[in-house]
Design goal:
The chain is mainly beta. The chain is built from no helices and 2 strands. Strand 1 and strand 2 form a beta hairpin.
């Protein structure tokens, strides 16, 4: 994905003041509530997350393969059902 940051160990170091901007999230991590396969077009996560159309998400694998991850843009999210 163009402009993405490769997964792995990252550090943000600062010796002065730092300000982060954007929408405050009540939760930034979720687990899938249904199994997802490689060719699935939808992912099912828990309801009540602050996810909007065009948000970018990382889908990480539970394997030890650091290449087994993907990044996607959200098409839609149903807040009531996940």
């Amino acid at each position: 994905m163009k402009g993405s940051i490769e997964p792995g160990e990252k550090i943000l170091a600062n010796t002065g003041k730092i300000s982060l901007y954007g929408l405050k999230r009540n939760k930034t991590i979720s687990r899938l509530v249904r199994e997802a396969n490689h060719d699935d077009m939808s992912l099912y996560v828990e309801p009540g997350l602050v996810i909007h159309e065009d948000d970018k998400i990382a889908v990480l694998s539970s394997s030890y393969d650091n290449e087994a991850s993907d990044f996607k843009e959200v098409d839609y999210y149903f807040n009531e059902t996940g």
